[in-house]
Structure formats: C-alpha cells, structure tokens
Amino acid sequence: MVDLISYGLLCFGVFVGAFVSGLAGFAFSAVAGVFVLHVRTPTEAVPLMMACSIVVQGVSLGILRNRMIWQDSFAFVVGGVLGIPPALYLLQRVETGIFRIGFGIFLAAYAAYMLFRPAVALLQQAQSRRRDAMVGFAGGFIGGLTAMPGALPTIWCDLRGLPKNQQRGLVQPFIAMMQLSALLFMMFRGVIPADMVTDFMISLPPLLAGTAAGIVMFGRVNELAFRRVILIILLVAGLGLLA
Questions:
Q1: I want to staple 40 with a disulfide (CB 3.0 to 4.6 A). Which of 44, 46, 160, 161 is the partner?
Q2: Residue 79, pLDDT score
Q3: Which of 40, 33, 37 has the alpha carbon at shortest distance from 17?
Q4: Cα–Cα distance measured from residue 71 to residue 19, given in angstroms and rounded to the nearest whole number
C-alpha cells in the first residue's frame, strides 16, 4: 500500500511538472519536486527529475522545432555550459542554503512586482551575444545550485518584452542542454541511483501525457495569459526555494 501511494504521488508530480513545462517551456523540476521529494530522497529525486526534464524538453523541441531559434540560443548555451562546473564545485564544498533562499526571494519579489505592472519591454535594445552569454552563464550557475537553469533566461526574455514563441525558441534549447550536461556529469561520476531506471519507466506514461497536454495548451493561450502564467510559475518556484 505504501509503495502504491508513493508511486501514485510520484506519477502525479511528474504529470503536473510535465504539464507546466510543456506549457511554459521550463520549471519541470521546480513543480515536480514539490511532490517527488516527498517520496524520494534528494539523491534519488534530482537525477530522476533531470532525466524526466530531458524527455519533456526533447518532446517539446521535436513538436515545436519550427519555433526554435537555434542560432540565437547558442550564446545562452555556451555561457550556461561554462557556468555549470563552478556551481557543481561549490555545491559539493560549501553550504548553498543561503544562496537558494536569496535567489528564492529575488524570484518571488520579481514575479510579484511584474504581475501587478503593465507588460513593458524595459530592455528591448539590450540584446547582444555577449549579454546573452552572461545571462546563460548565470543561468547555468544558478541551475547547478538550484536545479532551475531556465529562471534567469526567462526573466531576461520577459524584460526584453519578447513574444511567447520567441521566448520559447530561445529558452527551450538552453534548458535541454543544461539538464543533459548536468545528467551526463552525474553519470560520469557514477552517482546515478540504481532504482532510477524503474522510477523513470513508471513515470514515462504520465510524463508524456502531461507534456502533450501542456504543449496543446501553449498553442491556445494568448500573449498576455502566457506572460501571467510564466510570472506565476516564477513566483511559485521562488516561494518553493524559500520553503
């Protein structure tokens, strides 16, 4: 009975995380982790959520491939890959709880403020490959410490006032590469739990169902609704880091 409850909560968390990620393009781990971490230890949950996130991103990239902006996302990806090693180094050697709390406060405050002000492109002319690479580096670094690599690039796109298709086309490839790089690093170090394959196979049906439902919803929401969804997800993710 206990196993059935734990697997049920695991599948539900995966479905909800996949739906949100399919809709918004990010935040699978932030949403799914609320449920998965109640039934799995962090060492079991983190690689499982990374593997699930890669599937979500892969499906989304395949279905929305014509909307991806591969060339412009390259600077984000390069910067992000460079940001992962120092984050993982610090993660193993220093207490990062204060950093997570600080970043959670920033996310929650930013999202709450932006939810109650008109959508304005504050940094419309700020785009450059150097700035994109810097944002990518910060996203990769923060992703290594908080498992949320897409938060900063998403905020960057919001500040530039990018429409939902362009934002999705820039952020989606970045997140996919960050999660894949981190998982490969963990596999190289041999820290993947033996039971992860079983959990992953059980999670696969709700994972695919949630992703498909989220992508369908993405095609139906307008720009204003999409922006509000993104900010609400950032707010919840920030509060989750505080908790």
A1: 44
A2: 94
A3: 33
A4: 27
The CB-side HSE value for 105 (13 A sphere, CA atoms) comes to: 5
Cα angle vertex 214, ends 210, 219, to 5°? 155
Rg (CA), the chain: 17
User: Mean pLDDT for the chain?
Assistant: 84
With tokens 């999670």, the residue in question is 203
Burial class (CB in 10 A: 0-12, 13-18, 19+), 77: buried
User: Directed axis angle between helix 42-63 and helix 164-189, to 10°?
Assistant: 140
Please write the tens of the pLDDT for every residue from 111-151: 888 888 765 555 656 667 888 999 999 999 888 777 778 88
Using CA atoms, how far residue 23 sits from 60, 68, 211, 227, in Å, is 9, 15, 8, 11
Q: Tell me whether residue 186 is exposed, middle or buried, using C-beta atoms within 10 angstroms of its C-beta: 0 to 12, 13 to 18, 19 or more.
A: middle
Ranges of residues in the chain whose predicted pLDDT is under 70: 1-2, 92, 94, 96, 118-127, 191, 243
pTM beyond 0.85, yes or no = no
Query: Any long-range contacts for 123-128 (C-beta under 8 Å, 24+ apart)?
Result: 123/156, 123/159, 123/160, 124/160, 124/161, 126/159, 126/160, 127/160
Instruction: Give the DSSP per-residue string, 155-187.
Output: HHHHHTT--HHHHHHHHHHHHHHHHHHHHHHHH
Of the candidates 50, 57, 59, 5, the one whose C-alpha atom is nearest the C-alpha of residue 32 is 50
